[in-house]
Amino acid sequence: MTTPDTELTVEQWKRRALRAEGAVRHALWMSPLTYNNETAEQMRDRFHQHIEATYPDLITRYAHQPIEVYKRVDACGCEDDGSDEYENDHSEPSDDDENVCIRSYLGQVCEHCEDEDGDGPEWKPYAVEWPCPPIRAINATPGNAEVLAAGLTIALEG
Ligand SMILES: [Zn+2]
Ligand SMILES: [Zn+2]
């Protein structure tokens, strides 16, 4: 199931990459403020503040990454015919150390969001299907980066 606000356009991907590049560049170019003997800790805090203020969308995307969900081996229903193929498809461990069946892909859930009421997808009721609401919100506002870029251009010209 795909709705228009869940998939990024090429332009959105491009802007997202440029913003990530901007964040990395800031990290690489940053140096301690010598006039007040900035410590490593203060510099780290200053860096975090800058990133949080300038790239909140990137932080949200990082925290809300998708996890692919498959059926567990004890529930997939495949016949263990002893073949290499069966072995290959059933030797992937999940995060709770139960092997999963890569033939039975169920969908993607958010790494961060939880559904306390168990109203999530039937195959993982206490999780939230990805893209989750925060990611949908970011995807639905493609103008964010453009607004920032415009502000930067004006500042440079003025
Ligand atoms: Zn299976
Ligand atoms: Zn989420």
Q: Beta fraction of the residues?
A: 15-25%
Radius of gyration: 22 Å
| Shape category | elongated
Q: What is the percent of helical residues?
A: 40-55%
N-to-C CA distance: 47 Å
Helix and strand content put the structural class at: alpha+beta
- Please, how many domains? 2
* Average residue-wise pLDDT: 86
**Total number of helices:** 6
Helix-strand topology string = HHHEHEEEHH
Oligomer: single chain
Account of the 3D structure:
- A hairpin with a 5-residue loop joins strand 2 (92-93) and strand 3.
- The radius of gyration is 22 Å and the shape is elongated.
- It folds into 2 domains: 10-64 and 135-157, no CATH class; 66-131, no CATH class.
- It has helices spanning 10-29, 40-54, 56-63, 84-89, 133-139, 143-157, and strands at 66-72, 92-93, 99-114, 127-129.
- Strands 1, 2, 3 and 4 form a 4-stranded antiparallel beta sheet that branches.
- With 158 residues, it is of the alpha+beta class.
- Residues 76, 78, 90, 101, 103-104 line the site of one zinc ion.
Describe, in short, the structure shown.
By secondary structure, the protein is an alpha+beta fold. It contains six helices and four strands; from the N terminus they run H-H-H-E-H-E-E-E-H-H. Strands 1, 2, 3 and 4 form a four-stranded antiparallel beta sheet that branches.
